[in-house]
Write a structure and sequence with these properties.
single chain; 376 residues; alpha/beta; Rossmann fold; six-stranded parallel beta sheet; 17 strands; 24% helix; binds 5-beta-D-ribofuranosylpicolinamide adenine-dinucleotide; binds zinc ion
């Protein structure tokens, strides 16, 4: 029996307030309005950004359903939707691509004006939400909300992908892999034979390592306080790995020494801390080095640094979703995954049923997982 046009009752993982685990409850998901689609999640990955919502370090409105890295199938569409039809396999996009705003029209930009990544309003474009629990509205997260069996997204936040794409792997293209790989290739524009330093070797940082390698970097220094991450980093392309905990001096000085005082050509901060953002900047070449911020710092944080770090010529830039135009890039990356241009298996350390979402976050907190994928 078709569910189109009807309210769907389903399981979802809600965060009612920060610093509390997920509550798995039955919610109601309203049908999609015009230019929206209701999608059934097949698999969804756990990213550190979701944990920032759980910890409260990123300011948002509660109750909220996090999750933003998934593969889904379209259940029904609202009026005027042309890019997908029921039954299509899709990846929801935490960074929309409306195709009409100034950024979307600029070949360099990717931060579509329709994004909900600064204020995290957690509402659809019309200012309402499609989720409710016990009759009260529940906010969405980053235009997606994938920790639920069904979610509703705007068509600007949907990429149709190859129907044969494996959900448990392809979901990483919805965030972690594309963010890291794109940060190296597109935002950093890493060049052949260059040297790189990657601060943070989680799912996103390791994807930066993969991007640096694919771009032909000859030296890739992986940096993490958790040495358990080193073997995988080396397997994926890091030429050496160091832990800041093994040195008395600041880690940027260690990187400078490792590079004969030159600094690396490209550095990436993939942790989300202001001190490591400045350390990554100071680790790249004073004149032509490029340092890319990928990590999401707490909403309330501020950075202090010596202007000389920039004055001498370094470039400091940020990268959301790897600088990629999401709707254009995602279907192509899925095809590249399927043709084995890159493999994502090493990044997926755990696959758990959706009900075990809190266990998945514990693995992240303990530093035992790279990516945990939840299967619905
Ligand atoms: P993760 O927690 O899996 O990886 C972070 C890694 O950093 C871990 O291996 C830690 O051990 C390591 N680490 C922690 N503190 C330090 C330190 N002081 N020095 C060195 N290493 C340290 O996270 P992730 O890979 O899922 O995400 C990384 C960041 O990227 C996180 O802040 C997340 O919010 C952000 C992100 N940004 C975007 C974007 O579009 N810019 C997208 C997705 C994730
Ligand atoms: Zn993410
Ligand atoms: Zn746009």
């Amino acid at each position: 029996m078709s569910t189109a046009g009807k309210v769907i009752k389903c399981k979802a993982a809600i965060v009612f307030e920060p610093k509390k685990p997920f509550s798995i409850v039955e919610i109601e998901v309203a049908p999609p309005k015009a230019h929206e689609a209701r999608i059934k999640i097949l698999a969804t990955g756990i990213c550190r950004t979701d944990d920032h919502i759980l910890s409260g370090s990123i300011k948002t409105t509660y109750p909220v359903i996090p999750g933003h890295e998934a593969v889904a199938v379209v259940e029904s569409i609202g009026e005027g939707v042309t890019c997908v039809k029921p039954g299509d396999k899709v990846i929801p996009l935490f960074l929309p691509q409306c195709g009409k705003c100034r950024t979307c029209k600029n070949p360099e930009g990717n931060l579509c004006e329709k994004n909900d990544l600064y204020e995290f309003k957690g509402l659809m474009y019309d200012g309402t939400t499609r989720f409710s629990y016990k009759g009260k509205p529940v906010h969405n997260f980053a235009s997606t909300s994938t920790f639920t069996e069904y979610t509703v997204v705007h068509e600007d936040s949907l990429a149709k992908i190859d129907p044969a794409a494996p959900p448990e792997k392809a979901c990483l293209i919805g965030c972690g892999f594309s963010t890291g790989y794109g940060a190296a290739i597109r935002s950093g524009k890493v060049t052949p034979d260059s040297s790189c330093a990657v601060f943070g070797l989680g799912g996103v940082g390791l994807s930066v390592v993969m991007g640096c390698k694919a771009a032909g970097a000859s030296r890739i220094i992986g940096i993490d306080i958790n040495k358990d991450k080193f073997p995988m980093a080396k397997e994926l392309g890091a030429t050496e790995c160091i832990s800041p905990l093994d040195f008395k001096k600041p880690i940027n000085e260690v990187v400078l020494e490792m590079t004969e005082g030159e600094g690396v050509d490209y550095s990436f901060e993939v942790i989300g801390r202001t001190d490591t953002m400045v350390a990554a900047l100071a680790s790249c070449n004073m004149n032509y080095g490029v340092s890319v911020i990928v990590g999401a710092a707490p909403s309330a944080s501020e950075v202090t640094l010596s202007p000389t770090l920039i004055f001498t010529g370094r470039t400091w830039k940020g990268s959301v979703f790897g600088g990629l135009k999401s709707k254009d890039a995602v279907p192509k990356l899925v095809l590249e995954l399927m043709s084995k241009k890159f493999i994502l298996d090493p990044l997926i350390t755990h696959v758990l049923p959706f009900d075990k979402i809190n266990e998945g976050f514990e693995l992240l907190h303990k530093g035992e997982s790279i990516r945990t994928v939840l299967k619905m």
